[in-house]
Amino acid sequence: MTTTAAATEPPHIAVEHLSVSYAGVVALSNASLRLDRGTICGLVGMNGAGKSTLFKALMGFVRPSTGTVRINGQSVAQAQRRQSVAYVPQAESVDWDFPLSVTDVVMMGRYGSMGPLRNPRRRDHEAVRHSLELVELWNLRQRQIGELSGGQRKRAFLARALAQGASVLLLDEPFNGVDVRTEKLMAQLFMAFRRERRTLLISTHDMDHVTGFCDQVVLINKTVLAYGETGEVFTRENLALTFGGCPRYEEGWS
Amino acid sequence: MDPVGWFMEPLHHVFMVKALLISTVVGGVCALLSCFMTLKGWALMGDAVSHAVLPGVVIAYALGLPLAVGAFVFGVGSVAVIGLVKQNTRVKEDTVIGLVFTGFFALGLILVSKVRSSLDLMHILFGNVLGIRPQDFQQTLVISALVLVVLLVFRRDLVLFCFDPTHARSIGISTGFLYYLLLSSLSLAAVAGLQTVGIILVVAMLVTPGATAYLLTDSFGTMTVLAVTSGIFSSLLGAYLSYWSDASPAGCIVVVQTLLFVMAMVFAPKHGLLQRAFNNQPPQ
Questions:
Q1: Which of A79, A229, B42, B153 shows its CA 20 to 30 Å from the CA of B182?
Q2: Taking the mean position of all CA atoms in its chain, how far away is CA A99?
Q3: How much of chain A, in percent, has pLDDT values that exceed 90?
Q4: Do A108 and B160 touch (CB under 8 A)?
Q5: Which of A86, A99, A105 is facing B218, going by the closest CB pair?
Q6: Could you tell me which residue ranges the ABC transporter domain spans (chain A) (predicted)?
Q7: Chain B: nearest CA to A244, how far in angstroms?
Q8: Do A87 and B162 touch (CB under 8 A)?
Q9: Are A85 and B170 a contacting pair at CB < 8 A?
């Protein structure tokens, strides 16, 4: 844990004793974690370990059976109203044939801070432009989203989260199928986000990305098994607990 | 027959002027809604709701209420029932939809046969645009105007809802509200379309123009303009063809819509079959 944060500042993300069940099936039980502002945190676990449930809890989509989720000391609903939480979806969950341009999608990041008719004003156009320039998509802004490459698609949704002005970014498998250029650019952007004291929670299967980018890591298997500094948490024993001896994940990790 | 006469002569009949007017309005509004139906993947839902409104329409008729009220209650109600059955049984959603809407429709058929009135089953099933009653004419215009205003006002939220409901929720926009808004619009449009082409074919008006436009453009704004244009064009041409060939207006309108779709499917500049063959792309 960093000690520079003032004692008065609440953790950026505070999950305490969180349990979530779907129709009697426990997805997460007694999960707790705290992340300070400006943390890049990897979220590692098998499919079905509860990664998306944790994301859903942070977005207020599931009702916890026990426990609390606080974002910046506020309830999730309050944090949502302040546009604090952005979700960057997996590529597989997006309809890439949808008749929308890159600008249209990024502008959707602004909807929460617009009037009821969602008529973009000058500051909205400026926020969209700034975000698109940061992710280096300004030149491709009029493309239909399906005409982007895999890496560009990821960057478009990252730009939407930036345009939203979110301080907590939940990224679902952001490195799947991205090109080298995007990966480098995303690494740079993540460092910039850390300087801006945004907090990133990145779900990933790729251990190299965790050791490469993440200050902290959360290991999850129906509960939070361990979290903290990447170097301390990423031990053989912890990973064996996380993956339950699943050989696919242990290969190449020593 | 000279072309001018072909267009002018039917306008000498009040019933034809009314038919052209109402088909144009309904065709345009349903076409706008069809963009959302196509993108949300709600074609089957449109089919279900348009059938399930039948008992509501008959009950409203018998009680002297506006038909829209009955259609609204049963349209939204049928979807609520579909949701309940899906959640509480192991039956898959498409099966539940098929089962619920035919159940509602069958109940409607019984009610029609028991309510002794001038309510003609054939008119409900296949439309009666040439003999539309004055009060139905007014109601249809009001319903269409209401749906049009709702779709225009909530256009951007509804596009977001169709495209990425997760994002909508994460920024505090109520997807439950948008779901029922779209569903209510669908129920109301179904009863408006019922007056023009009847229950059986109304789903074509709620799906085909959107699908045609979807093949022609990659911009949502352009898609709505193309869908509404093709919806209105089909309604007008269909009504004229019906007049001159003494054929079913509903049939003519929907056949024109379908032909427009087929043309788009073959000749669309980017997503058409010819272009795909030319680019040597495998069809999706």
A1: A79
A2: 26
A3: 66
A4: yes
A5: A99
A6: 13-247
A7: 31
A8: no
A9: yes
**Torsion sign (Cα): A209, A211, A216, A219:** positive
A25, HSE (Cβ side, Cα atoms, 13 Å): 7
Q: Least CB-CB distance to B220: which of A80, A95, A99?
A: A99
Q: Do A111 and B173 make contact, defined as CB atoms within 8 angstroms? A: yes
* Chain centroid, CA B92 distance in Å: 25
pTM listed for this prediction: 0.91
Beta bridge partners of B42: none
CA of B165, closest CA in chain A: separation in Å?
A: 11
pLDDT tens figures, B82-122: 999 988 999 998 999 999 999 999 999 999 888 866 677 88
Write out chain A residues lying below 8 Å of B220, CB-based. Answer: 99-100, 104
Select the residue of A60, A61, A144 nearest B218 (Cβ to Cβ): A144
Q: What is the rounded average pLDDT of the residues A40-62?
A: 91
Q: How many CB pairs under 8 A join A and B?
A: 70
Task: Tell me the fold of A9-84+166-243.
Answer: Rossmann fold (3.40.50)
> H-helix or E-strand containing B68?
helix B67-88
| Cα Dmax for chain B | 63
Give ipTM to 2 decimals: 0.90
Q: What is the pLDDT of residue B175?
A: 94
State the amino acid at position A19 in one-letter form. Answer: S
Residue with tokens 């073959």: B266
Q: B224 CB near a chain A CB, below 8 Å?
A: no
Query: Which residues of chain B make contact with A23, given a CB cutoff of 8 A?
Result: none
CB contact under 8 A, B171 and A111: yes
C-beta atoms of A99 and B172 within 8 A: no
Q: What angle do CA B67, B69, B70 make, to 5 degrees?
A: 70
Tell me the C-alpha to C-alpha distance, in Å, between residue A116 and each of A46, A102, B155, B265: 40, 22, 11, 37
B150 interfaces chain A, CB cutoff of 8 Å: no
Neighbouring C-alpha atoms within 13 Å toward the C-beta of B75? 28
Contacting residues for A95 by C-beta, under 8 A, at least 6 apart = B39, B163
Query: B244 — contact with chain A (CB < 8 Å)?
Result: no
Q: Which residues neighbour B172 within 8 Å (Cβ) at sequence distance 6 or greater?
A: A77, A80, A81, A83, A112
Q: Does A98 sit within 8 Å of B163, measured CB to CB?
A: yes
Domain residue spans of chain A: 9-84+166-243, 99-165
Which residues does chain B have with pLDDT short of 50? none
Q: d(Cα B205, Cα B251) in Å, to the nearest integer?
A: 12
